[in-house]
Amino acid sequence: MSDEQTPPPIPKPKPTNKEAVAELWRRGAIWYKLNQTQKELYDLVLEADKRIIVWLASRRIGKSFTLCVMAIEMCIKKERSIVKYLCPDAKQARTIIVPIIAEILNDCPKNLRPEYLKQEGKYVFPNGSELQIAGNDGGRAESLRGGLAHLCIIDEAGFCDNLKYNVQSVLLPTVSTTGGKIILSSTPPRTAGHEFTHFIEKAEAQGTFIKKTIFQNRMFSPAQVQEIMDTYEGGIENPEFRREYLCDLSRSLDDLIVPEFTPELKLEVVREHVRPPFFDYYVSADIGFKDFTAILFGYYDFRASKLIIEAEIVINKVTTETLDQMIKQK
Questions:
Q1: What angle do CA 102, 55, 215 make, to 5 degrees?
Q2: Of 129, 183, 123, the residue nearest 153 (C-alpha)
Q3: CA distances from 321 to 132, 267, 316, 318 (A)
Q4: How many whole angstroms separate alpha carbon 157 and alpha carbon 155?
Q5: Packed helices 18-27 and 63-77: angle between N→C axes, nearest 10 degrees
Q6: How far, in Å, CA of 253 to CA of 249, rounded?
Q7: H/E run at residue 123
Q8: CA 153, CA 171: separation in Å to the nearest integer?
Q9: Closest CA to 69 of 102, 33, 93
Q10: Alpha helices of the chain — where are they, by DSSP H?
Q11: Global pTM exceeds 0.85
Q12: Model confidence over 263-289: pLDDT tens digits?
């Protein structure tokens, strides 16, 4: 299967009586609902000394469940606290997050149980705390703008458009005076150029990043992992399996602009080419605003009937003056 051993499933530790459960709820300490792998995600947030924490985890780890536990804990522990929870779209908020919260609240004492205001998309707790939930589609993330927050969550951040804007302009100002943290959680995005990869790289450098694959999923036995793997053609080498369950950030062929450009073809077409005595030279540009700007430098070899690309510039967030200098230098 893999050199990496899958640990046996570990049951969640559970209090033995209703009084103990009620006391843990009163303290806002419901981490007992988490398994060991989920607790490691949870602990990183508590221990991190930076504002932004990133979880990169496989499917079925229970990322959303863990996020909802942390959100509810915050709302109970701190009176009049605000938690902002952003999903890729409103449908996910309605069909996934709301049922998860209902499951978590199953053993919550009535005097601590929040009221769900469906039209406003939020849970209001008896102590005045609020858990505000929004989808990222249709500009709905703007509903989380303004006010203070003590915890911000972006679920499946790798599938949210305008991620940098939502973090830096919508959410970050809300935690600037509260000491609150922002959790970005996701499986890998379908395209390697997604803005989530920027946050992964930064979090890795700051020590606020954690990665969990299916081999670290305490809810699956080795046989169950093998069964999941066998459903993918090619097993562990299947690009979709590697992305969804091994958190492989490389892109699958279906997501490439030119899927025919395989590693094997690259060996054939990317090589040195001797310049002919006469040729037409070209410089082409694809100017990006939100995306990268790409400049290609090439020429047409009449004798070989080939377009030869000699060099490129690929850069993000560049001024026209800087780009002009780079092109001239190249």
A1: 90
A2: 183
A3: 43, 36, 14, 8
A4: 5
A5: 70
A6: 13
A7: strand 122-124
A8: 9
A9: 33
A10: 18-27, 36-47, 63-77, 90-92, 98-104, 163-165, 172-175, 196-206, 222-230, 239-246, 263-269, 320-329
A11: no
A12: 667 777 788 888 998 888 899 988 876
